[in-house]
Write the structure tokens for this entry.
Amino acid sequence: MTSLPPARILAIETSCDETAAAVIENGRALLASTVASQMELHARYGGVYPEVASRQHILSAAPVVEETLAKAHTTLGDMDAIAVTRGPGLAGSLLVGLNLAKGLSLGSGLPLVGVNHLEGHIYSAWVYKDGETPPPEPEFPLLALLVSGGHTELNLMESHLKYKRLGATRDDAAGEAFDKAARLIGLGYPGGPAVQKAAEGGDPDRFNLPRAWLEGSWDFSFSGLKTSLLREAQRIEKEDTPLPVADLAASFQAAVIDVLLQKTLNAAREFGARQILVAGGVSANQPLRQAFLGQREFPVNIPAFALCTDNAAMVASAGYFRFAHGQRDGMEMDILPTWPLS
Ligand code: KG4
Ligand code: ZN
């Protein structure tokens, strides 16, 4: 970190249903972050409605950037680069942020840096609020578990911007599984927080739901778990008894956490990781955080709660490290999910 040049980055994130902007200094000190959530707009559809999302981004993006620069007491002239999420995500949503970033870059002459959204989630672990004592930086090699609505992956991160993807989900992402499970047992959208809340006071051992260990692979699978939950719910409904929502939610949540924790610990042992990093929307789950922080074998870094779900602070951080390592993108940059991340 000390050898990297100082820089201030403005970042824009519009990959899904949050319009977000942030200003960060030297990849870690967050001067300002704004997240305009569209959750209420999409709740009536039970999920993100892509066309509605991109239209709302068009309305919100420029004001969100202006508000963020003002909150940071900065102007575009104080920035060294503009970072923007270039994928993966919803094409129509990504395009809004990318085009705004290109326009700002063209108008200001500031370099443009495209960021992979998943890399952004990982870099949320580097961010702290300006003025607060900086927490220690994550140490390499680290084992990064990425658990979001669209992805579930285990990556070995050997140094800044260098990743080895060990495994990923073969079907549903962990967040997607939470969202679908919520629907199956009559809970609202988004499913993750709803399942967590419903599970409070529930018995996680009441239903012995399956864990897909997929021995010999670092992959995950959650579709069997989801089907088992559905079968249990259908069986109970046939008996004409009220659905034990709390117990079902708690049993489901415990099964997801169990697999995520055990496989991550195994991978950390196998690859000699110095620490574990958990990121992505599902890392906001309290019992999951407790499970990871409760084990004593590896130090664990989980981003602050507000940085778990989509935001631009994480994109600003990843953008800084890419900028500091020489990445520059041009007006031809497209919304192409880039993977591997290197
Ligand atoms: O990272 P994120 O905001 O967006 C993507 O990049 O996908 O993750 C959203 C996902 C959703 O599936 C949501 O249900 C899940 O994160 N999530 C949670 C919790 N909060 C959000 N899952 C479990 N427990 C939570 N508390
Ligand atoms: Zn995300």
In short: The chain is about 40% helix and 20% strand. The first strand starts at residue 8 and ends at 13. The chain has two domains: 8-127+307-324, 142-302.
